[in-house]
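User: Hey, quick favor. My workstation is busy. Could you predict this chain's structure for me?
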Amino acid sequence: MKRHLPLLSLVGLIGTAVSASAHPAQFHAVDMGGAAQAGFLHPLSGLDHLLVMVAVGLWAVQIGGRALWILPCSFVGSMMLGGTIGLCGVHQPFVEHGILASIVLLGVALGIAWRPSKLVAALSVGAAGLCHGYAHGSEMPLGALPMMFFVGMVVATSLLHAFGVGGGLLLNKNPKIAVAVRLVGLFLIAFALYDFCFPV
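Assistant: No problem, here it is.
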């Protein structure tokens, strides 16, 4: 049972995201605590965001070595940049396509266990983080304190990355279960196709 705990936890996270609205824009976030809570909940409330952030951690494990921290840091750093652009109101019409592309990219990477150079992996993850960060920033609730919103957003994202890394490391201990990571990749691709055909 313990061996399957990472998978069960992932299912629980996905279930939580599905039950929430896709991107709740209305939070009572006028104070510091409310802004931080809104920022923390935003990455957890959209299944697309949640899947990508966990997948970044899983892919980092597949690549191994310094990728375990390079990929999450690349995503978080570029996410903050994208969030800042979103806060500034710069219109980016292709962001949703970028988010969809990030799901496909990570799905394929996990599915075929792609191990590119760490620079290529970091740039790929950074591009994904930029798109997801823009979505977070542009959907920040009115009246929220940007700094506290970003703090909550970074904490939630880092926890999802850590969950992906931790789950990947546990799964890698047993080759028979490690194939589950590739199945996650296939699920990501299927989700992206569904989202493309039936956009919310």
